[in-house]
Design goal:
This protein is an all-alpha fold. It contains ten helices and no strands.
């Protein structure tokens, strides 16, 4: 490998690391602790994301978690897309999603990536992001399952990207969909078994 290739490889690793560190900030955990609600991982599903924060009864904190977690993906993309190029922004965004799902600070036990995915899609391609958000809202409204809404939005992301965005966006959406499906394995089993709690329930499942 020549020097130029080494520099390029090192740059890409650096982009992923920066995105990962940004994505690994556990806003749900931090907000609930600051609010005096204890460790969010000790209630509900034990997840640090929006759905589990909502189980504390604090809708304001849940909304803040949604926006901040979404912002991680958006900022990671916009930073590098603006400074370098769109494809580099996509790589940084992927790093942010990975950081959210597997934060080193929490022994790699993070969130399920839905808000970060939607924020990343909105930043990378507003029409694509809006379409994915619409799918999430529609499925959540009609079926009342947060996990099912997330899985549907993620699964349709690559298909929607082919029509509304670039091939690079479609590839990113496909990688995100695979990671989100991996993070929702337990939810998928509960959905198939008919034991997945609906939105607003206090039982584990978010």
């Amino acid at each position: 490998m020549d020097d130029l290739a080494l520099v390029a490889a090192g740059t890409l690793v650096g982009v992923v690391v920066v995105g990962y560190l940004l994505g690994s900030i556990p806003f749900g955990l931090l907000l609930t602790k600051v609010a005096g609600l204890g460790d969010i991982r000790a209630i509900g599903s034990g997840n640090i994301g929006t759905t589990n924060v909502l189980r504390t009864g604090r809708k304001d904190l849940a909304l803040a978690t949604l926006l901040l977690d979404g912002g991680k993906g958006a900022i990671a993309f916009l930073l590098f897309a603006t400074l370098v190029a769109h494809p580099i922004g996509l790589i940084a965004g992927a790093g942010a999603l990975l950081g959210h799902c597997y934060p080193v600070w929490l022994r790699f036990r993070g969130g399920k990536g839905v808000a970060t995915f939607l924020g990343l899609m909105l930043a990378a391609s507003p029409p694509l992001g809006a379409a994915c958000c619409t799918v999430w809202v529609a499925v959540a409204y009609f079926f009342r399952f947060s996990s099912l809404a997330a899985l549907c939005a993620a699964a349709l992301g690559p298909i929607l990207a082919l029509a509304l965005a670039t091939p690079g966006d479609a590839a990113l959406a496909l990688a995100c969909a695979a990671l989100i499906a991996l993070r929702h394995q337990e939810n998928i089993r509960r959905l198939l078994a008919g034991t997945e709690p609906r939105i607003g329930a206090s039982k584990p499942g978010g």
